[in-house]
Amino acid sequence: MKSTASLRRREVKQLLRQMGQRVYTDLDNAVFPELVFPSRSVRNIVYDEGLKQYILGSSSIRRSSQNIKHIRPFSQLVWLAYFVNKLVAEGKTSTLRDVFYSSQAYNVEFVDQDESDEIITDLEEVLSKAREDFSVYPEERSAIFGDLTIEYTVPGYEGKKLNLSSHPDGYLIGPSLSTAEFVDTSAEMVLAVEKGGIFTRFVEEKVHKKFKALVIDTAGQPPRSTRYMLKRLHQELGLPVYIVTDGDVYGEHIAMVIISGSANAAHLRELTVSSAKWVGVWASDVVKYKLPSNPMTEADIKRAQELKKDPRYTGGIWQRELDLFLKIRRKSELEAFSKYGLTHITDKYLPEKLREAKGM
Amino acid sequence: MKSTASLRRREVKQLLRQMGQRVYTDLDNAVFPELVFPSRSVRNIVYDEGLKQYILGSSSIRRSSQNIKHIRPFSQLVWLAYFVNKLVAEGKTSTLRDVFYSSQAYNVEFVDQDESDEIITDLEEVLSKAREDFSVYPEERSAIFGDLTIEYTVPGYEGKKLNLSSHPDGYLIGPSLSTAEFVDTSAEMVLAVEKGGIFTRFVEEKVHKKFKALVIDTAGQPPRSTRYMLKRLHQELGLPVYIVTDGDVYGEHIAMVIISGSANAAHLRELTVSSAKWVGVWASDVVKYKLPSNPMTEADIKRAQELKKDPRYTGGIWQRELDLFLKIRRKSELEAFSKYGLTHITDKYLPEKLREAKGM
After folding, report:
1. What is the interface pTM, i.e. ipTM, of the complex?
2. Catalytic residue selected from A101, A228, A289, A349
3. What would you report as the CA-atom Rg of chain A, rounded to the nearest whole angstrom?
4. Of the N and C termini of chain B, which has fewer Cβ atoms inside 10 Å?
């Protein structure tokens, strides 16, 4: 469990140095510098049956400074490497939006943030690292609570420790938490829940103690930094991950993205937790637990039909629950359990579903 | 600064008891129980020139159990009082949505959450208390960072202290923070910023130390719980509040709502901080600081024209900046300062604007 953060930072610095070195070597040899990385075009995003996730195929993108059409993205990419190298060196972080505006300080032109976001993704590929590793974060954040002692690695806080059960509203998963070392935990699992209200309910009902769990609020479809955190908790602490969502197709898809990744992050296989389990709310739970429910809208039904054709949803509970949603045409939120009292979800539903999930 | 939380809780319990007592007394006297509170109909929302905010006029709503049309909202309201009394007694919290579903446990019918939200607002009026006082919170949350030591009052954490500068990603403003006592602070002001990215930048650049400030991320238009926190920081600690938003009409309106409240919370005058100052980004700052900007959309322009007619926007910087937005037809985000380097906003802009605001 030791010093993975400083290791990661050192690795990123080294990779950035190598990238710069390649450019300089080309120049020294009087060759036009170029950078090569896998293509993310739709045709190169393929579903891997074995990994059960989308990955990139074998096509490459070549950005050559010899090609006049390439000069723009090539220099943007080189500038970005320079910029994040500075960020990492100074121990600062940046947001996707900040990167866009920062470029103007260097007279590097991006038409809009879409263009700079694209180049950030290019750099993820060149380095084979998630942007969280080079200190670029999104705006949205989610939260964590439970018995996990962390040690900060950000400037001004190095060596300071914090136990994540000390603030009952939960801790924001921001840059300093994402880069912290995991020092000690008594937790035996991670429970990822879709919304803040249920997160607070779980904390109040001491789910972290009763189930020896770290509880994470994904705040809807989890931001990348939260998936990054889930992955680290699973990998570095060996904790199984269980996902609790609303009983609808969007909830099912939140679980799917945590487990199998998304097509537009196909270049970042390491963000997935393939052994994570979706414990519910399933369509069959809506029926079994006689939950208050609402009719699915036209958009819900269309979404379910789309997902049915998605290769990630082949077989198992995934296809079965989609079919059942389409049959019952109803959906339920997590709060619907309150019909049976505020603690029904933690006293009855959760233990039953976790028992079931562990047997899966 | 002492024990305001337990005082607030005791007061709410007393008010709930009084409300119940009124019903019982009526029954004992063989009179149909009724509840009376100010009307929130549009015709009863009036702008108060002196207070510079929307308040409720003198019309009342009478909910009588004698009137067959009133029985439904009357019994919903009585049930809600029973439910939150239990919440407060048990030291639990609930969300707006949870209240809706919980009603089904008691066979109290609400068609949808809109209806239960309405009744929650009714109860705010009957008790003259914000729902945060009786433990009902929304989903959304924002964050706070800085040198403020709090003492929890929630079950399991009573008496525990925490300093809000100990986690550099900031602390979520959830139920336990909202109800905590303020024990000690070295801060001399509160800086409310509109978005997480800038919040993180401020923390990294040690704005809390340089400006002796508590920094709050309002996460867009601040949720009620955040306005509640701003009000407490101002009232209990005597701290002035400065608001930093994007340079657009929505940013201007975020500041306005913190300062003068909103029409749909006209019944809760105590949520406003009327002495708070909007330090920018003003339309004139977009020009003065030569910020990268985008054209205003049709919707932006329409919104500005609407606000121009709003009585809260009469005169002062409010009208002047709206006029200028409409003249330049451009808008800038806070991140636009990154054009001049990541620290320009904290090194140059913020000190200049705070100096200006203190002279206002």
Report:
1. 0.78
2. A101
3. 22
4. C
